[in-house]
Backbone:
């Protein structure tokens, strides 16, 4: 199901039960166009996500941790000024549209009570969050300011009047319904797909999947059209949050199990379901948005170095036969008396090949001795070239390995991990540093993620090269156990125990495999070794280490196990 009006109906009911009369204690904007209100209600703290993300706009409570920016946006400062410390007095949906209003009792600068409203419009790329004065509908501010140059009918700017989005000429399915018209519609369109299209025209706030499920329910044998319709929409008032797959095996979510879908998992709340459904999708989207520069730099560097490596290998292949020049030069020097000035070629006995004759090309303008010296010079030139080419191939291969590692880290990164990767690439000169500071400041590295094994042992996981270096070379005790996926780009993992149990080693190895490029593989080899045997080579790039005397365990990474170890913390 999309976050349509009917799903919004269910979500509004859930939010009322959790948040009404709650007090707003914190307001942050961890990501662009996404506001987190921390609300204290029923002796619990709720994180309320108001998202105007064009791809994943929604409203929910969330348990996903967020890292807040150091400098709040202007919109956040406005929200803090007007509603921080105020109470939520009402939450309601506009008809069956994808619009939710949060009402707050607040005090203005004079100390007088006033009612303010946060309007959340969930409308794909037109989604928005608007702070409005309830008494006169004046807009205080919006997370996306829309001027008259973009929308003449409806401006969303401070001081403008808030106008609801244009209302469609359709019926609220939770209001008064003309069932005779619905019955006629059901009889006229026996095909479920065609009926679903007509239902979307007739009723407000039902998406494609909801209309298909409704059409299927109306065509079912048994009771009257009225009872089937009311029974279907009554389920939105008693949600059983479900993640399922549709007929195309695509993962979908719904407020209750649809007969047209294959149910996979049910949740206690709609918000818990959305957390799980959007966890991977939203993370990838945020990483793509915030890490676009890193992704582009990495792609460019990989492309450049792979092209360079191909050229170097071609040149190496061309220079592999440098010894032929030395042999020809020595044969010429030995048989100079047999070479006549002006000859273009000469055939001589090759004493390096059982005196089989070798044909040697000559420069007629040079003397026989000068021809021999020319061959010696070519030999020396190609010999030096071989040394240079081998050095360049080694360096280029290191660069490719380095950026393949960066690429793997971006793929498994959380948005908050991207800062370290950007800092690393800046310090390496791959990204231009536009900061005005001339002095080199000490790089502050974020902390690795903590996990707890089944027997209570702490396991630390680095998510990028700076974290890996800090964790392995500075934080870890020399007697701790270090793990890494064998010959695969991935995280450094440290078990904070000198003699961990076999179970802990296996669980740490599963973390090492999961936070690596082999996340989706089976039977992944993971090396483990005491930290004292892990060394960084002189001049080695961030994250690069060598180790000896390791043991290997084979594991299959599992998201469920990773989540369990995370929950243990």
Residues:
């Amino acid at each position: 199901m999309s976050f349509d009006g009917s799903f919004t109906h269910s979500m509004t009911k859930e939010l009322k039960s959790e948040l009404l009369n709650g007090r707003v204690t914190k307001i942050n904007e961890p990501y662009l166009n996404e506001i987190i209100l921390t609300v204290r209600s029923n002796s619990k703290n709720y994180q309320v996500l108001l998202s105007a993300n064009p791809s994943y706009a929604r409203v929910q409570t969330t348990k996903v941790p967020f890292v807040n920016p150091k400098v709040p946006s202007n919109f956040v400062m406005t929200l803090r000024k007007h509603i921080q410390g105020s109470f939520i007095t009402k939450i309601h949906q506009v008809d069956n549209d994808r619009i939710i209003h949060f009402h707050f009792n607040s005090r203005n600068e004079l100390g007088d009570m006033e009612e303010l409203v946060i309007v959340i419009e969930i409308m794909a790329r037109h989604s928005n969050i608007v702070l409005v004065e309830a008494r006169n509908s004046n807009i205080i501010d919006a997370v996306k300011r829309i001027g008259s140059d973009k929308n003449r009918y409806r401006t969303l700017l401070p001081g403008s009047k808030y106008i609801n989005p244009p209302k469609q000429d359709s019926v609220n399915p939770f209001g008064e319904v003309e069932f005779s018209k619905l019955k006629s519609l059901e009889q006229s369109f026996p095909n479920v797909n065609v009926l679903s299209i007509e239902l979307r025209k007739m009723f407000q706030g039902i998406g494609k999947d909801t209309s298909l499920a409704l059409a299927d329910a109306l065509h079912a044998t048994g009771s009257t059209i009225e009872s089937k319709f009311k029974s279907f929409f009554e389920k939105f008032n008693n949600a059983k949050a479900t993640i399922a797959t549709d007929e195309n095996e695509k993962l979908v979510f719904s407020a209750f199990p649809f007969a047209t879908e294959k149910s996979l998992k049910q949740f206690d709340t709609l918000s818990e379901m959305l957390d799980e459904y959007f966890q991977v999708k939203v993370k990838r989207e945020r990483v793509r948005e915030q890490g676009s520069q890193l992704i582009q730099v990495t792609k460019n560097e990989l492309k450049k170095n792979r092209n360079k490596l191909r050229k170097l290998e071609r040149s190496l292949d061309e220079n592999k036969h440098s010894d032929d020049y030395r042999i020809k030069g020595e044969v010429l020097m030995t048989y100079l008396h047999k070479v006549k000035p002006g000859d273009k070629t000469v055939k001589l006995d090759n004493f390096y090949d059982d005196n089989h004759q070798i044909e040697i090309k000559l420069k007629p303008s040079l003397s026989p001795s000068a021809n021999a010296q020319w061959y010696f010079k070519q030999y020396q030139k190609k010999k030096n070239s071989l040394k240079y080419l081998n050095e360049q191939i080694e360096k280029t291969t290191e660069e490719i390995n380095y950026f393949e590692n960066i690429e793997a880290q971006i793929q498994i990164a959380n948005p908050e991990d991207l800062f370290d990767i950007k800092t690393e690439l800046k310090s390496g000169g791959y990204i231009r540093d536009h900061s005005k500071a001339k002095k080199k400041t000490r790089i502050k590295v974020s902390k690795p993620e903590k996990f707890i094994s089944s027997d209570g042992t702490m396991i630390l996981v680095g998510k990028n090269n700076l974290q890996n270096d800090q964790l392995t070379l500075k934080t870890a005790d020399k007697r701790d156990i270090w793990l890494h996926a064998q010959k695969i780009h991935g995280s450094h993992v440290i078990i904070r125990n000198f003699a961990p149990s076999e179970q802990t080693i296996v669980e740490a190895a599963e973390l090492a495999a999961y936070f690596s490029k082999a996340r989706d593989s089976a039977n992944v080899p993971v090396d483990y070794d005491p930290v004292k045997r892990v060394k960084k080579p002189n001049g080695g790039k961030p994250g690069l280490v060598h180790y000896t005397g390791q043991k290997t365990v084979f594991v299959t990474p599992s998201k469920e196990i990773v989540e369990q170890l995370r929950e243990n913390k």
